[in-house]
Design goal:
This protein is mostly helical. The protein is built from 9 helices and 3 strands. Helices cover 74% and strands 4% of the residues. The longest helix is centred in the middle third of the chain and has 25 residues.
Length: 223
């Protein structure tokens, strides 16, 4: 029993590290994932790695190539638009439910998450681009806090998965849009505290669509 538990823990650790490396571009889109080459870096057996990669296939981060093995899922402008549209749909609905249900504790969580995000965005606006992963974590925490009172575990899980696919595109192609993105976060905070879900959904749509259009317009992704 103890051996099984240790094996499961090691497998979960390898899963999280591989997933992180795909999301943050350390394993590049289209890169072949050879099990023998992954064994040592991720301290996992071939059989465990195969299970992990099939799990990541179900999340849209890896493609199985039949007898050829696995590769990191490619990126494209078309797919980014599809991911963005799904994020708008899920997050917009979750915002409405969260604004209706959220209380004082929810407001405190939103304010705290925004405070962390705005501090780091200020540093990035001043020219410091060395902490991209921390910035994206704070970005996630703010958007997660906004929808955290929606009352649905299934909705929260679906939102996290689509947000991660969207995050991958931001890291690979966009990074940081600057003051417009920071201002949109300030607007979302103000509208959340005012419980104006219609206004917040409008800002969220602009926030997401502007990121997609910036990426497509500047040719940072293949169509």
């Amino acid at each position: 029993m103890q051996t099984a538990t240790l094996s499961e823990t090691a497998g979960e650790g390898a899963y999280k590290r591989i997933r992180h490396d795909i999301l943050f571009g350390h394993l590049r889109p289209g890169e072949r994932l050879r099990l023998e080459k992954l064994k040592n870096p991720y301290s996992a057996s071939v059989s465990t790695l195969r299970e992990i990669l099939y799990r990541l296939c179900s999340e849209g981060l890896v493609l199985a190539e039949g007898q050829k093995g696995f590769e990191v899922a490619p990126v494209s402008g078309r797919n980014f638009r599809e991911v963005a549209a799904m994020r708008e749909l899920l997050e917009g609905h979750a915002l409405m439910e969260s604004f209706n249900r959220g209380g004082v504790d929810w407001e405190a969580d939103v304010l705290a998450a925004h405070h962390k995000l705005v501090r780091l965005e200020s540093e990035m606006l001043a020219g410091d681009r060395t902490r991209t992963e921390i910035w994206k974590r704070y970005d996630w925490e703010f958007h997660h806090a906004l929808v955290s009172a929606c009352g649905s575990a299934a909705l929260m899980e679906a939102h996290q998965r689509i947000y991660d696919l969207y995050l991958r595109y931001q890291i690979i192609a966009v990074i940081f849009r600057g003051e417009p993105a920071a201002e949109e976060h300030r607007e979302l905070l103000r509208l959340a505290l005012a419980r104006d879900h219609a206004g917040a959904i409008s800002v969220l749509r602009r926030h997401i669509d502007s990121c997609v259009e910036h990426t497509i317009r500047n040719g940072l992704l293949p169509e």
